Each structure stands twice: as C-alpha cells, then as structure tokens.
Amino acid sequence: MLSVEDANKIIAFLSAAYLATEDAEAREEFHRLANELRKSSGQLLE
Fold first, then answer.
1. Taking a C-beta distance cutoff of 8 angstroms, is the pair 5, 44 a contact?
2. Which pLDDT tens digit goes with each residue over 1-46?
3. Are 40 and 17 a contacting pair, CB within 8 Å?
4. C-alpha dist (Å) from residue 22 to 5, 15, 37, 46
5. DSSP state letters, 1-46
C-alpha cells in the first residue's frame, strides 16, 4: 500500500500538470491518475 504522504506528493505534481494544460483529455487522465493514487493510499476519491 502506498503511504498517504507519498501519494500526496505525486498528486501535487499531477495537479500542476493538470493546471498547466487546457487539453481536456490530458486533464481527465491526470484526474484519473490522482484518483488511482488516492485509492492506493486509502484516501477518498475526488
């Protein structure tokens, strides 16, 4: 299982990438990946 701390560090990078693009498909993928990290670390999905 991934620690919450490690997951949140990676999610911060995904969030920056999400905000750096206007491509809807890329944003959907960043969101999906962040939720997979949340799931792996036992956090609630967003």
1. no
2. 899 999 999 999 999 999 999 999 999 999 999 999 999 999 999 9
3. no
4. 28, 13, 22, 20
5. ---HHHHHHHHHHHHHHHHH---HHHHHHHHHHHHHHHHHTTPPP-
Q: What proportions of the chain, in percent to the nearest 5, are helix, strand and coil?
A: 75, 0, 25
CB 45 within 8 A of CB 7: no
* pLDDT attached to residue 1: 82
Structure tokens at 19: 């905000």
Other Cβ atoms less than 10 A from the Cβ of 3: the count is: 11
pTM of the model: 0.93
